[in-house]
Design a protein that fits this description.
There is one protein chain. With about 280 residues, the chain is an alpha+beta fold. It folds into 2 domains: about 5-165, Phosphorylase Kinase, domain 1 (2-Layer Sandwich), CATH 3.30.200.20; about 180-279, Orthogonal Bundle (Transferase(Phosphotransferase), domain 1). It has 6 helices and 11 strands. The chain has helices at about 100-105, 110-120, 125-145, 185-205, 240-260, 265-279; strands spanning about 25, 30-35, 50-60, 60-70, 80-90, 155-160, 160-165, 205-210, 215-220, 225, 235. The strands form 3 sheets. Strands 1-3-4-5-7-6-2 form a 7-stranded antiparallel beta sheet, covered by helices on one side. Strand 9 (about 215-220) and strand 10 (about 225) form a beta hairpin. Helix 2 packs across helix 3 and helix 5 runs antiparallel to helix 6 (about 265-279). The longest helix has 24 residues, at about 125-145. The termini are far apart.
Length: about 280
């Protein structure tokens, strides 16, 4: 297959090297890539095309879109197409920054001018903060996936767009959030055990999710997948690290208690603190 001229990514559809209408050439070549070994389903061909299939989730910091990446070879071979989730972080003019300060403590940039701009929330500073959110989530997913934790595989990062594994069915139906689930007693216990193991492993590496709730955990069959990691917290390095960890414990244990499982947030917090401080 010949490689298209990617400099014409925004060319009119009438040009011979333009992608199909409403689609774009894959941005793989210009993007930062996820960790190796890559899953077999990742398409890296420069001749691949991305089609936006609509919004999966809208939030204050980003929108998540369903994207189909495929190789237009004239066939419908499923081996040359894949569904992915593209998280597009909002620009400085359209983002909410009320939560940024606490999460950004413990993170550093090299130039003091950039630190001052971020602290003062200038336009330049807001762009830097937005870039830190995207980069932080991509870096977190890369590290967590490498550790074997239940997170989506991060395919690529290109500017303010992060493309990652789509958690859902082959026909594009996203896995439900844990908040919408009504598991029976046996599955409920198993889900908490899965979560306990994941949070313990995180704490052993010095991390807390930082914004954990039943709304950013997906239920993929009987398997939990944790999402939304831009605010990942360094428990030790962030002055508020233990407070964020405690809030995570209280919030998620509250959901399990309301659904009939007798778990104690303070016990979970004590276990995670022990894991974080003994590593």
């Amino acid at each position: 297959m010949s490689t298209p001229n990617t400099s014409n990514v925004y060319a009119f559809d009438s040009l011979p090297d333009a992608p199909p209408e409403g689609e774009r050439w894959s941005t793989w070549d210009s993007a930062q890539h996820g960790p190796k070994p890559r899953p077999e389903w990742v398409i890296t061909a420069l001749g691949a095309v991305d089609a936006d299939l609509g919004v999966l989730k809208t939030g204050k910091e980003a929108e998540v879109h369903l994207v189909r990446r495929w190789i237009p070879d004239g066939t419908d071979d499923p081996a040359v197409q894949v569904l992915m989730a593209a998280k597009r972080f909002r620009t400085a003019e359209h983002r909410m920054f009320h939560r940024d300060a606490g999460y950004l403590e413990g993170r550093r940039v090299r130039k003091s001018r950039e630190m001052r701009a971020m602290a003062r929330r200038t336009t330049f500073g807001k762009h830097l903060v937005s870039a830190q959110w995207a980069g932080a989530e991509f870096g977190a997913l890369s590290a967590l996936h490498t550790l074997g934790l239940p997170v989506p595989y991060p395919v690529q990062l290109d500017g303010q767009e992060m493309v990652m594994e789509f958690i859902g069915s082959p026909d594009g139906v996203a896995a439900p959030r844990l908040a919408a689930a009504r598991p029976g007693p046996v599955l409920l216990r198993d889900l908490f055990d899965q979560l306990y193991a994941t949070l313990t492993r995180l704490a052993e590496h010095g991390w807390a999710h930082g914004d954990l709730s039943a709304y950013n955990i997906l239920l993929d069959g009987d398997r939990l997948v944790l999402i939304d990691w831009p605010q990942i917290v360094d428990i030790i390095g962030n002055p508020q690290g233990f407070a964020f960890l405690h809030r995570d414990c209280v919030t998620i244990c509250g959901w399990f208690v309301r659904h009939g499982l007798a778990v104690d947030a303070e016990v979970l917090f004590a276990d995670l603190v022990a894991a974080a401080t003994s590593s």
